[in-house]
Amino acid sequence: MDTRVTTELPFYEAAGNEVALFEHAWKNHLPLLIKGPTGVGKTRFVAHMAARLGLPLYTVACHDDLTAADLVGRHLIGDGQTVWCDGPLTRAVREGGICYLDEVVEARKDTTVVLHPLADDRRVLPIDRTGEVLEAPPGFMLVISYNPGYQNFLKGLKPSTRQRFVSLRFDFPSAEREQSVLVGEAGCDPMLATRLVNIGRSLRALKDVDLEEVVSTRLLVYAATLIRDGLDPVEACRAAIVESLTDDIETAEALMEVVNATFGR
User: Fold this and answer.
1) DSSP 3-state assignment of 33?
2) Can you spell out the DSSP letters for 90-142?
3) Between β-strands 141-146 and 81-86, what pairing exists: parallel, antiparallel or unpaired?
4) What is the distance between the alpha carbons of residues 238 and 88, in angstroms, rounded to a whole number?
5) What string of pLDDT tens digits covers the 265 residues of the chain?
6) pTM score, two decimals?
7) What contacts 205, CB < 8 A, 6 or more positions away?
8) Where would I find the CbbQ/NirQ/NorQ C-terminal domain in this sequence (predicted)?
9) What are phi and psi of 79, to 5 degrees?
10) What span, in angstroms and rounded, lies between the C-alpha atoms of 2 and 121?
11) In what order do the strands lie in the sheet with 2-4?
């Protein structure tokens, strides 16, 4: 779990009306679902909005072993006594902050059911082990995200969960916006940003290469950061982009052809 309270506004380059939609959802006590590919800014967007609204942010990276107790809390034994310890969801409710569940489809379905009373007009969190029923204050907001490309029959949101949320779709940014992200996030010059964005768009357009995921904006930022710091551009792209996308040597070499052509090698 990551807990963050910051007044510094994290960099975020808006693509459309997502900032306004988030603010309207928060003001009207509506939970938000964000869906989109890996590395397109979902988590950064939530951090940006939490800072923009001046709210504490509790981020949970969901996984197969995540239990309801991990979210709500549990009794712990220490110094000869049993003490209740709030989980991140309970803390966010008590403090009136944002609870963000990243890649929520990775969590077990019986775990996500605990969100239901908070994600409808009741806005309450029953804590069975203490007998409490917490009413969410006006500032509380529940945000979840997932990558639709990872969904399958076994891992997907139940309709009863999905239909409790306002939904927002993220996708790969336009070339112009992606260049702005690289310049703003990595501090690289516009010419380098243009080259890296061209690499990204070329790799995403490849049809005969077997990749589980195409290159994300996040990986392009990593490459720009390494190059800005003095690493050779081709080596930076190999380390930050190509080797992060595939373990197959032949596929890696096919991707490197795009990199080499861009940098004149």
Assistant:
1) strand
2) HHHHHHT-EEEEETGGGS-HHHHGGGTTTSSTT-EEEETTTTEEEEPPTT-EE
3) unpaired
4) 38
5) 565 655 679 999 999 999 999 999 999 999 999 999 999 999 999 999 999 999 999 999 999 899 999 999 998 987 778 888 999 999 999 999 999 999 999 988 888 889 999 999 999 999 988 999 999 999 999 999 999 876 554 567 888 999 999 999 999 999 999 999 999 999 999 999 999 999 999 999 998 888 888 999 999 999 999 999 999 999 999 999 999 999 999 999 999 999 999 997 6
6) 0.89
7) none
8) 178-261
9) 55, 40
10) 27
11) 2-4, 57-61, 98-102, 141-146, 32-35, 166-169
Q: Are 134 and 73 in contact (CB under 8 A)?
A: no
Tokens 């993220």 locate to: 170
CA dist 139 and 113 (Å) reads 22
Task: Kindly provide the b/e burial profile for residues 163-189, where b requires at least 16 CB atoms within 10 angstroms of the residue's own CB.
Answer: ebbeebebebbeeebbbbbbbebbebe
CA distance 265 to 250: 18
CA gap 260, 265 in Å, rounded: 5
| In contact, 31 and 140? CB cutoff 8 Å | no
**Rounded CA separation 223/220 (Å):** 5
Cβ atoms of 67 and 26 closer than 8 Å = no
Q: Which residues pair with 98 in a beta bridge?
A: 57, 141
Beta bridge partners of 78: 81
